[in-house]
UniProtKB/TrEMBL annotation, chain A:
CDD domains noted in UniProt: TM_PBP1_LivM_like (cd06581)
Keyword presence, Kinase: no
Segments passing through the bilayer: 35-56, 62-81, 88-106, 112-132, 137-154, 183-205, 236-254, 274-299, 311-334
Cellular location(s): Cell membrane
Membrane topology category: Multi-pass membrane protein
GO molecular function, one term: branched-chain amino acid transmembrane transporter activity
Keyword presence, Ribosomal protein: no
The name this protein goes by in its record: Branched-chain amino acid ABC transporter permease
Origin superkingdom: Bacteria
GO cellular component: a single term: plasma membrane
Keywords noted in UniProt: Cell membrane, Membrane, Transmembrane, Transmembrane helix
UniProtKB/TrEMBL annotation, chain B:
UniProt keyword annotation of Signal present: yes
Keywords of this entry: Amino-acid transport, Signal, Transport
Superkingdom of origin: Bacteria
Protein name: ABC transporter substrate-binding protein
Family in the record: Belongs to the leucine-binding protein family.
Organism this protein belongs to: Azospirillum doebereinerae
Domain Leucine-binding protein: 29-370
Signal sequence interval, chain numbering: 1-15
Length: 347, 395, 288
């Protein structure tokens, strides 16, 4: 327990930091917010499965976005590494399974997922070494520049990637040889859901481990963590690689479920969007990232159907309202709601 | 316990946004229109949507008691995964009878398997790569193909005695390269060759450095292809500010270069530009005059229909045509079959679908930008009648 | 050879100056207030629209339209700063990013509603629409004006920041805000003024540069990357840093396009990566 105590004491010495809320929250029983969201998401998924046939596709999109958001939250929210280029790993994962299928005939989905994770992790290791040498705005720009370079390469490499036309001719075999991807998106929904559950499970375990706590410690006070003997650079690189792998898996899922890859999976705007999602949900809280992904994707889908020409405006308004009235993101709102309810019940 | 029931309620509300109840009327057809309505290419999607809606409002009573409902979705630009999901949802959630729209070729390619799988006709209103119709037997294209509009222009250019050397400048993506190749092959057939060519980045804010290079090379003509008409003004400004016209370099191009909704922004720089295209807002016919009038009555005097608007309009005409022909026995296969033999008089002139390729056959006009009644117009002066897609003819 | 070099230099400079005029304000606000304003480009676009409306719809001369763009956008900037941006000083960076993106989205929708989705070009005065000869190569005179405007704005900023009391306060606050406040600098007013100045110059840049970076509703989104690059490479809170960064990026980009168009975009990002790895805080960075 000394690890926790240590980190707690570190974060407690930095009051007000959004970061420390998780750990103070633990002590004060504020994991209620997390639990509430977990229950809500679980029930939502179940309801969609049973009654929301028309929303299975959107559901798989939400699950994929959640995994991607989670990968970015681990980086931005937990380790304090900023990125505006995470689409590079997402896109690389997507292109990995796409190219493996279209050019090499590797159509098996589960091994494809693994392959995509490994390839994205490799790129993460290479760029991570460089990106982690900088901080702040420089870091942000470096991630962006690397992602843009890869985007250009994919754009150029037409024989391999299909360039701006998109990668055609990819086929994905039935999962475990049994479940074919159907037009209703049932297989896609269950498949992405299963991967999501696995990823969330791993992420929760990881963030609660001494390793995960040391990351928060690094974000809060790098010098101090170094002083107590943590190999800071090593820890940061490992989370960078892990996050890259997760993003790659999310991208691979998108490619497999839509059986098509376009250049947009590598685009800067996707990197920006996922950062928005994490901030919207509440950075540094895994369940916040998941909630952010759900709300953002649903809103975007509904708004763009209701007002195809001006949905941007309503999305902007929503984000602005959240920033101004929910400083800790959506999960902060949930926390507040719960504490109000809690107070009422105890009265 | 109030907490749990609250959460349950919220979960239900989030997850179970109920699908729209299906209209019980037997002959209520639904058309899912997927176009780009936000982002840098929003103007293109707006044109198609307006064209389709205009046809709907002008032909409300054309189908007797049957109705056609348009369900519009925004695919946000070249985003094949978004387009594919929207198409899939339109099919399973909204149960549309026809898919339509599509600005960008990759989006069309991504949707094609859905059309095949669901046996839903897929009417393409823009995406112009020649091979797209091959992606699904359910695709019918009412817009244009790049070789179709490019080769006639090249043939025209080849005949001009004062055009001895041609420089080509195209956007560096599949349609641009297709246009570049089609132009070169058209010129070659007539015994001339392209002297130099350059491909510019698709997201190319500034044309001046490229055109400066063209100016140094001093060709007689510069052929240009740009995506769907969102950069034409910038190109024209660069052409003017470098004084290329004065230097004796004629600007010719695919019709997007002188697209009508941008002409007013271009100013006199555009005068004399020669383009090959299938639709001009000032096309001289009664039908077109009525069409433009109806358009401006609906969308204001500032709005002019472009080839995109006509694509949306004619696409709906083809869909209505199929519904009418099938007299209530509408199936996906039958509708595609009906459209394969569809022909009509369009605002752009006579059009028909080639039964072999499901691609459009239409007149290609060579036009010159002139000032008529104080406004810039594309004035047609030569017609290549009933052009089939040379891309497919060659293969 | 000489022609090519001249062309690259000339157009590279013109491009660089547009980047500089639009971005310099962003660097100052990020350096001074620590506010990451991703909606900065929307203010530049607003300036562009002011010039378009003034010259095309109202028939005002270009020379009236430019100052008008500065004033209108600076006022808009001041209002936004007073109403909302102020509440986010010192807030979590992600919240600032989220808020400014929200602002950007709303601005895009607003511009589309008001001006339509197509690009707009201002009317350029006849005196600037011709050609000037440099050696035996002719260049558009308007671009020569753009270059001169960029240098003039650099000079004006240098005088303002380096030689006036207000500039002194700004410099003091960039270096150490607490200390500046302790010796009686009213940072609240100073921040509003600086924000207004930064957005106003961006508006001016949007208007002057409309020939190079076309004015469309999505301007602020499309070119955001370029502006951020200039600021990051130049260094926060500096007025010379972004100038140098813009020069590098402008000339390298044009050279790439002119000499090797197939590999256009690789050059910019290559340079950015190289500079940031060598100098993570940017060329003139006070802090990163």
């Amino acid at each position: 327990m000394s690890g926790i105590e240590r980190v707690k004491s570190i974060s407690a010495s930095y009051p007000g930091a959004a970061a420390s809320s998780t750990w103070r929250g633990l002590a004060m029983g504020r994991t209620g917010g997390d639990l509430a969201i977990a229950v809500l998401l679980g029930l939502g998924a179940l309801a969609t499965l049973l009654f929301g046939e028309a929303y299975w596709l959107l559901g798989s999109q939400v699950a994929i976005t959640m995994i991607f958001a989670l990968s970015v939250d681990l980086l931005v929210g937990f380790a304090g590494i900023v990125t505006l280029g995470h689409a590079v790993f997402f896109g690389l994962g997507a292109y990995t399974v796409g190219i493996a299928s279209a050019h090499l005939g590797w159509t098996e989905p589960l091994s494809g997922l693994l392959l995509a994770g490994v390839v994205a992790a490799l790129l993460g290791a290479v760029t991570g070494v460089l990106v982690l040498r900088t901080r702040g705005l420089g870091q942000l720009m470096l991630t962006m520049a690397f992602a843009s370079l890869v985007y250009e390469i994919a754009n150029r490499a037409k024989p391999v990637t299909g360039g701006a036309d998109g990668l055609q001719g990819m086929v994905i075999a039935p999962i475990l040889g049994l479940f074919e991807f159907d037009i209703f998106g049932l297989t896609a929904f269950l498949y992405t859901l299963a991967v999501l559950v696995a990823v969330v499970g791993l992420a929760v375990l990881m963030t609660r481990s001494p390793y995960g706590r040391s990351l928060v410690g690094i974000r809060e006070n790098r010098v101090r963590m170094q002083a107590i003997g943590t190999n800071v650079q090593h820890r940061l690189l490992s989370i960078y690689v892990m996050s890259a792998a997760l993003a790659g898996i999310a991208g691979a899922l998108l490619a497999q479920t839509s059986q098509f890859v376009g250049l947009n999976v590598l685009h800067f705007s996707l990197s920006g969007e996922i950062l928005i999602i994490v901030a919207l949900g509440g950075a540094g809280r895994l369940w916040g990232a998941l909630l952010g992904a759900l709300v953002f994707t649903l809103f975007k889908d509904r708004l763009s159907a209701l007002d195809p020409a001006y949905w941007y405006f309503w999305l902007g308004l929503l984000l602005a309202v959240i920033v101004l009235f929910a400083p800790k993101g959506l999960i902060g709102l949930v926390d507040r709601l719960l504490s109000i309810l809690h107070r009422k019940e105890s009265l | 316990m109030s907490l749990r029931s609250l959460m349950l309620g919220t979960a239900m509300a989030t997850a179970a946004i109920l699908p729209l109840a299906d209209g019980a009327a037997a002959k209520a057809y639904k058309v899912g229109l997927v176009v780009s309505l936000s982002g840098p290419t929003a103007s293109l999607g707006q044109q198609i949507e307006r064209g389709a809606k205009l046809y709907q409002s002008l032909h409300k009573n054309g189908l007797g008691d049957d109705t056609v409902e348009l369900i519009v979705r925004d695919d946000t630009g070249p985003a094949p995964d978004v387009a594919k999901r929207l198409a899939q949802e339109l099919v399973v959630r909204d149960k549309v009878d026809v898919l339509a729209g599509i600005i960008f070729t990759p989006n069309a390619n991504a949707i094609a398997p859905i059309a095949t799988q669901a046996k839903v006709p897929f009417v393409i209103m823009n995406a112009a790569s020649w091979a797209t119709t091959k992606a699904s037997p359910y695709i019918v294209r009412v817009s244009q193909t790049l070789p179709q509009i490019t080769v006639p222009l090249a043939q025209w250019a080849a005949k001009q005695p004062d055009i001895k050397s041609v420089y080509t400048l195209v956007s560096d993506y599949a349609p641009g390269i297709e246009a570049e190749e089609a132009f070169a092959s058209g010129l070659k057939e007539a015994g001339k060759t392209v002297t130099a060519s350059v491909r510019v980045p698709v997201q190319s804010p500034d044309f001046v450095p490229f055109l400066q290079k063209v100016k140094d090379a001093k060709p007689d003509a510069l052929y240009v292809f740009l995506p769907g008409g969102t950069q034409s003004t910038a190109l024209m400004k660069a052409y003017q500010s470098l004084g290329l016209k004065e230097a004796g370099v004629r600007l010719i191009g695919s019709g997007e270069v002188a697209v009508e909704d941008e002409l007013p922004n271009m100013g006199d720089a555009a005068l004399g530009v020669v383009t090959g295209f299938h639709y001009s807002t000032s096309h001289d016919s009664k039908l077109n005059a009525d069409f433009v009038k109806a358009w401006q009555a609906a969308y204001g005097a500032d709005s002019v229909p472009t080839f995109m608007g006509v694509g949306g309009y004619d696409g709906m005409a083809a869909i209505h045509g199929a519904i009418k022909a099938l007299k209530g026995k509408f199936t996906g296969e039958a509708a595609v079959e009906a459209m394969r033999h569809w022909s009509a008089e369009s605002p752009r002139g006579p059009i028909a679908i080639d039964p072999d390729t499901r691609d459009i056959v239409q007149n290609i006009y060579i036009r010159r930008v002139e000032k008529v009644d104080g406004a810039l117009r594309n004035v047609e002066f030569e017609t290549f009648a009933a052009v089939k897609d040379p891309g497919k003819a060659a293969k | 050879m000489i022609t090519a070099a001249l062309t690259i230099l000339f157009h590279g400079l013109a491009f660089a100056m547009v980047l500089y005029i639009v971005s310099v304000g962003l660097g100052i606000t990020m350096g001074l207030m620590n506010f990451a304003n991703l909606a900065h480009g929307a203010f530049a676009a607003a300036g562009g629209y002011v010039v378009v409306v003034a010259t095309r719809s109202l028939g005002l001369p270009f020379w009236v339209a430019l100052p008008a763009a500065f004033v209108v956008v600076a006022l808009a900037g001041a209002v936004v700063e007073r109403l909302v941006v102020r509440t986010l000083y010192g807030a979590d960076e992600l919240r600032q990013v989220l808020f400014s993106i929200a602002l950007l989205f709303m601005a895009i929708a607003g511009f589309t509603a008001a001006f339509g989705p197509l690009q707009q070009q201002p009317e350029i005065p006849a005196a600037l629409s011709g050609q000037i000869a440099l050696g035996d190569v002719e260049f558009p005179s308007y671009r020569a004006f753009v270059i001169a405007a960029g240098v003039a704005i650099l000079a004006a900023l240098w005088l303002l920041i380096g030689r006036t009391r207000i500039g002194m306060r700004i410099r003091a606050a960039v270096d150490n805000r607490n200390m500046a406040e302790a010796i009686g600098v009213d940072t609240r007013t100073l921040f509003t003024l600086t924000f207004a100045l930064g957005t106003g110059i961006a508006g001016l840049g949007g208007g002057i540069g409309a020939d190079i970076l076309s004015i469309t509703p999505t301007y602020g989104q499309e070119y955001l990357v370029l502006f951020l690059i200039v600021v990051a490479v130049g260094g926060l809170g500096s007025i010379f840093g972004p100038f140098l960064a813009a020069l590098c990026i402008g000339v390298v980009d044009v050279a790439g396009k002119y000499l090797l168009p197939e590999f256009g975009a690789f050059f910019i990002y290559g340079v950015v990566i190289a500079i940031l790895l060598a100098k993570p805080a940017g060329l003139f960075g006070v802090r990163s």
